[in-house]
Amino acid sequence: MKIKEFLEKNRVLFQMIYGVFLIILIPTFIAFNTIYLINKYSESIDTTIQRNGLLVGRSIYALIKSDLNNNDILQNKIELLASKSTDILEINVLKPGNDNFIFVASSNPENINKFYKYEYYDLAWAQPDNDGLATDFVRVQNEDDLVINPDTGNRFWLIAMPMSDFNGHKEALLTVKLSSDIVDRLVSENRTTSIYVLILTILFVILFLAIAVRLWDYALLYKKIKEVDQMKDEFISMASHELRTPVTAIRGYASLILEGSFGEVNEEVKKSLSNINSSAKRLNLLVEDLLEVSRIEQGRIEVKSSPTDVNPIIAKTVEDLTVQAKEKNLVLSYLPHSDKLPLINIDQDKFTQIIVNLIGNAIKYTKEGTVEVFTEVKDSGKILEIKVKDSGVGMSANERKNLFGKFYRIQNESTKGIGGTGLGLWITKKMVDLMGGQITVDSIEKVGTQFTVSFPIIKG
User: Fold this and answer.
1) What CATH number matches the domain at 306-456, 3.30.379.10, 3.30.450.20, 3.30.565.10, 3.40.30.10?
2) Are strands 155-164 and 100-106 parallel, antiparallel or unpaired?
3) Ranges of each domain in the chain
4) C-alpha pair distances (Å), 142 with each of 145, 146, 203
């Protein structure tokens, strides 16, 4: 089996797999990207805090450096500095001794004279003068404050840097604990908001992708429908052309027999031939309508418009259809508002077909009474209206809505026995539209109908 045939055969399966793949992949990528950015943002904040913490440590170092040998003054300064900011949790000055560090001054008096052994202090002591380390810890209740704990707690930053005397000899170790509560709270709020936004975004994306996959399916279905519709139009066009020749031949032969070209025929044969001729005529009209529909839908209609006085066209059409009206005992009249009508830009053949369709339709649906054709100029001389009014069966408001639909026919008690394809008015409206006009209908059921065709008047 060829690859193309295999893909076409399993198109629906591959489409489902592709849709599921998109619905999983894109939200996963968005989630990964958002979490990555949140983590990078937190790292950037920590880096900034770390640098600022070292700056705070250097500032305190500069303020107390001259008092390293006077513990009382050093203690007073440390307590004063710690009280100036709630973000400073603790300031300590330690001096090395016996592989340990002893607190000589502290904002927490309980620390004074305590010995402390901590690897972090050793690392900080090894740093150059006026430089140090800054790292974050989590405070644990009832435990050593310097123990790193993964459980939730209030985070703080510990800054540690060696202090030298004026000769450059390391003499003490300065440690500063800075609270990270405010920053951590803001970061946490932003992270929570970002997660909510992420969830909503993913839900919208999943919904959008589901709709997109569905629309894709509709697009493929629409493509198939267009292909079928194109095949239908081509078939109708071909079938109509093929039908036209035999229908014409049938009508021709029937007419020749009726005229006696093949000898005398009795009345029964004439009656049968008349029925054949009548049926062939209806079939011919159907073929012509189908061909017209095919030409319109395939865009093969040519409109050759020119400025025209439609008065002679309407008069000639009314004259031609008078016989048809008289056969039903109807009065067909034409009442132009003037002997010479304003010029309008139309295709004369298409306009003739429009008038024939409207008057023929009025005669068909009028059982008794009149069919009137008249003209009016509206909109301050800008529009010419041609109206066809009958006293026929009329129609309801719902029926008027669908009147210009393809193959639509009004079917009720009043229209029983009235034939037709339902294409005439659809073709009429399409032709009016092609020539830049408008067609409207007003009707009252069991009273009558009026069609109005409007075209812009050409100003001389």
Assistant:
1) 3.30.565.10
2) unpaired
3) 11-179, 191-297, 306-456
4) 8, 12, 45
Count of C-beta atoms within a 10 Å radius of residue 38: 16
Closest CA to 373 of 329, 311, 430: 311
Helix (H, G, I), strand (E, B) or coil at 396: coil
What's residue 452's pLDDT? 96
φ/ψ bin of 377: left (φ > 0), alpha (ψ from -120 to 50), beta (otherwise): beta
- Amino acid identity for residue 228 in this structure: V
pTM, full prediction: 0.50
Who's near 52: CB < 8 A, 6+ residues apart? none
The pLDDT value recorded for residue 201 is 82
pLDDT at residue 278, rounded to an integer: 73
pLDDT number for residue 233: 67
Q: How far, CA to CA in Å, does 454 sit from each of 347, 376, 440?
A: 14, 10, 9
| Overall CATH class of domain 11-179 | alpha beta
DSSP character string of 235-261: HHHHHHHHHHHHHHHHHHHHHHHHTTT
- Architecture per CATH, domain 191-297, reads as Orthogonal Bundle (1.10)
Reported as a single tens digit per residue, the pLDDT across 344-381 is 999 999 999 999 999 999 999 999 999 999 999 998 88
Please give the structure tokens belonging to residue 299.
């865009």
- Using CA atoms, how far apart are residues 178 and 173, in angstroms rounded to an integer? 16
Query: In angstroms, rounded to a whole number, what is the distance separating the alpha carbons of residues 391 and 366?
Result: 6
Residues of the chain where predicted confidence (pLDDT) is lower than 50: 140-152
**Chain position carrying tokens 């639509």:** 408
- Residue 302 Cα to chain centre, angstroms: 35
Distance, CA of 443 to CA of 391 (rounded, Å): 10
First to last CA, the chain: 71
The amino acid present at 50, given as its one-letter code, is: Q
Give the whole-angstrom CA distance, residue 38 versus residue 194: 8
Say what the pLDDT of residue 417 is: 67
Which runs of consecutive H residues, i.e. helices, occur in 65-143?
71-83, 119-125
